[in-house]
User: Fold these one by one.
Assistant:
Number 1:
Amino acid sequence: MTSSFVPLPLPPSADPSNLKAFGREVHGVHPRKLTQAEFKEVEEALYNHDLLLFRNIDLTPQQHYLLVEAFDMSSELYSHGNKALDKTKTSILHAYVKSLPNTPQVEIIGHGTIRDHEGIPEIILKHGRHPENHAFFRWHMDAALYDLCPPKVTTLYGVRVPKGEMQIVRYDDGSGDELNVTLGTTAFVSGKTMFGILPKELKSLAVRARAKYAPHPFQWMRNARAVPTGLGLETEGLETALEDLPPWEEEKVKAYPFLWKNPVTGELLLQVHPCAIIEIQIDPLPQGRDNTNVPYPAGGRITDLKEIRELIYRMERLGIAPSLVYPHSWEEKDLVLFNNRGLIHSVVGVFKKGQTRLFHQCSLAASDEPLGPSEEDVNRWS
Ligand SMILES: [Fe+2]
């Protein structure tokens, strides 16, 4: 059989012209039985379309892990380190993800009480939710952003998917924006689009900027609240002081360019974790460039959290407009693979009592760092 890649059905809220290249449903091959040639096709499609959906797939945790590993053969650590989150009770992620006893690279996420699952007698899962109810929880890429490299591919497998009424996501930022979604959707937005729609002056800033992330960012941010859109944190001084964090080393702190390069298409995309960032470093404009209307023509460093967050918000908010969001409508046995270095995503919605959700998730800390813009890119977009 040969594989085919079919456009995903888009909800009425989506603008098809912007999302036409985003996401494909894969037919004709089983992700667990790919020949080398078929795997290559799938891998290429993943980087061309950023998200792949396989429907009605049976997949054990071990098979799930092996599939993800194939995208980065030298990697074998879960994105935050195997079982690292189980041990780190002070991380904000601790409440939401638990690793499976026999396949620690695969985590379970969801909502409600699960009994007798893959060697776990009983576990109570908590769905990440925004206190403002039906909002995006937190936009993010899956990455520890300290010590370990950001995973290339994340996979989500729907074991149990509750059915329920549609919910309305309210952006609540004065825009009046709303998005109709199915219960427990995962929302995705493309980093390529997010960069593509930026005004020229913000493109110039993006191509020259680096995001420095807090050491142990998920412990650093654990007491801070997200803004209503889930695109960053409120600045209320609630971050843990750096000296109160578990021991950390400067060499393990991560600083990444704002723009990452898709390894297959060579396209640039905006990829900044809006909650974990602690500093912005900006290079000056290349010599002899016209600096009219260009922000930070001489470069600089921004260390004020409020200023950092306002700037990131300005840059990323355009890209999460309702028409640009792909909210995946989950069915049981859906397997979604996404280019974790090409998009950001968010958990959405609120479950009622009795609405049990169980997902397997696997992403592995990568064996290399993401590619940033080349000198040519900097010259082109500055
Ligand atoms: Fe995630």
Note: The longest strand covers residues 106-117.
Number 2:
Amino acid sequence: MTAESSDAGPAEAGPHDRETIRDRGTIRIGISACLLGQEVRYDGGHKHAGLLLDAFGTSVEWVAVCPEVEAGFGTPREPVQLSRGDDAIRLVTVTTRRDLTAPMDEFVRRRLPELRLEELSGYILKANSPSCGPREVKVFDGHGGTVVDSGRGLFADALIREFPQLPVEDEGRLADPRLLEEFVRRVFAYYRATKNKKL
Ligand code: SF4
């Protein structure tokens, strides 16, 4: 698990400390790790979303996930893209055309139950990523040369299916102050609605 804590967050708390997390009133938000400044992108860089993170101040605890690193793809790595297969959308390396759908699916099956224990109140994803993008990610044909459709990144798709009520946005849309304000409102409402429930 990759988690960063704000001053307000219980750095020593793990995902199994369910009552402890509730009692301390910590709001936990999942986030694509590269947005938090972790150098996990395919080129070894990050996409630190400073202004966005500043908007939340120290009032939340970030739970960082990089699906591609946690699925074992390594850093740096060959970039991947979504590719339309015969039966489903696949995750394929751009140049060598290796199909990495199976390890990503295995990671998703392992990680989503862990994220349920994290009691997240929202999730901020990296836009346009074939793993993290929650909308309008390019889907290419089997050769990778032509865009034939758009969809969700594989991790984002599984996350949204698993937690259909969870407020989820991408950092691109949250650059709009109106959408950011609405997202923050939804996060706090979700937190209030769920903090006394057994999920
Ligand atoms: S977009 Fe997602 S998979 Fe890509 S580097 Fe960021 S966290 Fe990792």
Note: The first strand starts at residue 2 and ends at 4.
